[in-house]
Amino acid sequence: MSPRVLGRILHGVALLLVFAITVFPFYWMVSSSFKTQTDLLASPPVWVFTPTLTNYADVFADEKVTRAVVNSLIVALCSTALSVVLGAPAAFALARYDFRGKSDLWFWFISNRFISPIVLALPIYILALQIGLLDTHLVLILVYITFILPIVVWITTDQFRSIPKELEEAARLEGASQFDIFWRIYLPLGIPGLAVSAIFGFIFSWNELLYALVLTRRDVQTAPVVATSFMSGYELPWGKIMATGTVIVLPVTIFALLVSRHMVRGLTMGATK
Amino acid sequence: MSFLRLQGIEKRYGTVSVINGVNLEAEKGEFVVFVGPSGCGKSTLLRMIAGLEEVSKGDVFIDDVRVTDVEPAKRQVSMVFQSYALFPHMSVRDNIAFGLKMAKVPRAEIDRQVNEAARILQMGPLLDRRPRQLSGGQRQRVAIGRAIVRHPKVFLFDEPLSNLDAELRAQMRVEIARLHEQLGVTMVYVTHDQVEAMTLADRIVVLRAGRVEQIGSPQELYEAPANIFVAGFIGSPKMNLLNAKVTGRSEAGIEVSHPALAAPLQVTGRRQSEGRAAPAVGEEVRLGVRPEHLMLGEGRNLIRLKADLAESLGGSTLIYGQTDSGETLSLQAAGRRMFGKGEAFTAGFNPADAYLFDKAGEAV
Known about the structure:
The complex is a heterodimer.
Chain A: H1 3-33, H2 37-41, H3 54-61, H4 63-96, H5 102-111, H6 117-130, H7 137-161, H8 165-173, H9 178-189, H10 191-207, H11 210-215, H12 223-229, H13 238-272
Chain B: E1 4-13, E2 16-26, E3 31-35, H1 42-50, E4 57-62, E5 65-66, E6 77-80, H2 92-102, H3 107-120, H4 136-148, E7 154-158, H5 166-183, E8 186-191, H6 194-200, E9 203-208, E10 211-216, H7 218-223, H8 228-233, E11 240-250, E12 253-257, E13 265-267, E14 284-289, E15 295-296, E16 301-312, E17 316-322, E18 328-334, E19 344-349, E20 354-357
Parallel strand pairs in B: 3-8, 3-9, 6-7, 7-8
Antiparallel strand pairs in B: 1-2, 1-4, 4-5, 9-10, 11-12, 11-14, 12-13, 14-20, 15-19, 16-17, 16-19, 17-18
Helix pairs in contact in B: 2-3, 2-4, 3-4
C-alpha cells in the first residue's frame, strides 16, 4: 500500500472518529427522546427499541415549553436585531474613520468576551434585582446584546474594511453624505458579514443557559431553562428532557446547516478579497 | 483667467513632502495630462483637484472659484478611478444614476440623462446588468457614464486604462479622445504611459518627485525637452544619450566631439531663450539622439557601433549597439534587419535632430 493511500485512510478514520465524538451526544439525545423511561434507564443501554412519541406529546402538551419557545424567540430575535442595528454603524465608524482611542475601543469590544460569563452573573443579578428588571424579556435582551454586539462589531468591521476605499470616494464625489455612504454602499455590501454575525448572535441567545437561569423565574423562562427545570424533584423525566432538548436544538441545527456555506464565506471574506 | 488653476500647491504627509509647489493653468475644454514615474505625485495632485486629498498649502480654482476647502461633491468635478470604483451591488443604470439621485433630480430627468449617457457610450443593452457581468472595457465605459451625467466642469481620470489589455487600451484611448471632442469639457488625465500622454493631451505636465519638470504640448516636449528627465520620458524607445565634450562655440551653434564620432559636430541649441549660460569649451555635456533619428549607415555624422541585439518588430527592427567606449545606443530601422552579435556597423544622424544637455541635465 502506498503511503499516499495509507495517509488517506488514516485521514478518513480520524475524520470518522471526530465525527462520531461530536455527533454521538446529539444522537443520544434524539434517540433517547423516542425511548420509554424503562428503555432509557436500561443497563446495558438498549440500542434497538420500539420508538414512542409519548415524550413529544408530553412536551407539546406542556404549556411551559411552548411559552418558553416563544420567550426564546422574542429574546433571541430582539437581541440579535438590536445588536445588528447598533453594531453596523459602530463597525462603519471603526472601519472608516480615524479617531483617538480607536484601537483601544476596538480591542475593548472583544475584551468583553474575555471574562468568563459566570463571573458577572451575580453582579448582573443584583443589578437587575435593584432596578426591577428581574424576570423580564428586557433584561435578557440587554445582557445578550453585551455578548452579541462585540461579535457583530468585529466581523462587520472586518467586512467593511475589505470594501475598496475608492467606492467611498466615488460616492463622495457623486454627492453622497456620510449617511448615504453607510446606507447605500457599506450596508448592502456588508450584508454577508452582518448576516454571519446575526446568525452567531441568534444561535448564542437561543442556546444561552446561565444568565437565563439566573435572571428569570417564571414568566420569561427560555427554552433551555425549561428543559433543565424538569430536572427537579425525585423522578427525572429523561424522555421529556431529551424531547425538549431536541425541539430546542433542531431548528438552529437545520438553520446552521443551511447557512453554513455563507458563514464560512462571510468569515473568510476579509482575508482573501 | 484660466478655467482650472493650481497655485503653489503643496502636499505634505507629516514631514514627508510629496508635492512641492505646483502651478498650473488650464483653459476651458483643454485636455491636460499629468505624466511621470510612479510615486511622482501625479495621482495625489489629481486627488487634490477632486478634493479627496487636503491641500497642505496653495489654492485650487475651478471656473474662477476658489475650491480649496470646498467638499468634493460641490466642486462640480467627476472622476474616473483606476479601479473604476463601480458599486458592485447596483445595476449599471443605478451606478450611472447615483449622483443624480444624490442630487435629488426628478426620476424622469434621471432616466433621460442615463439614456443619453448610454447612447453616447453605446451601452444601452447593458443598463440592467451588474458590474461583475461586464468586461473591463464595459466597466470602464460605465465609470465614464457615471462621470458624464453630472455635467461636471472638470473631468478627472486617474490612470483609467491601466487595467485593460493592450488592444482594449488603444481602443478606449480613441474613445476618450472622441468623448473629449464631443463634450468639450476640461479633462485632467493621469497616466504613467507616455504614449497615452502624447496621443491624448493638448498639454502635458511632466512631474517628478512632486515637482513640475515641464509643461507643454506633446510636440514641444518632444522637440524641446527642458532637461534629460523629460527627454528620456517622452518618446519611445528612449532617447540615446552620449557623454560628449564641448570643443568649440560659434554663431552656428556648439561644437561637440565624441570618441565614436569621426569629426566634431555642430549642434544648434534648442532652448537658448531660457537664459542659461551655454556650456563653455572643454565642458562635459550629454548629446541626445532619438532612436528614430538614427539611420543605418547614412548621414554625415556616423557613429561606429558593434551590434548587441536586434529585435524585429515586423515592420521595423530595433537594434541595440555599443560604442567603443561602452555606451549603449538603440536605433529603429525600417524593415527586417539581421545582425550578428558583435557585428560592426555605423549609424548617422542629422545634427538638427541632436539634443544637448549640460552637466546639470538642463537642455542647452
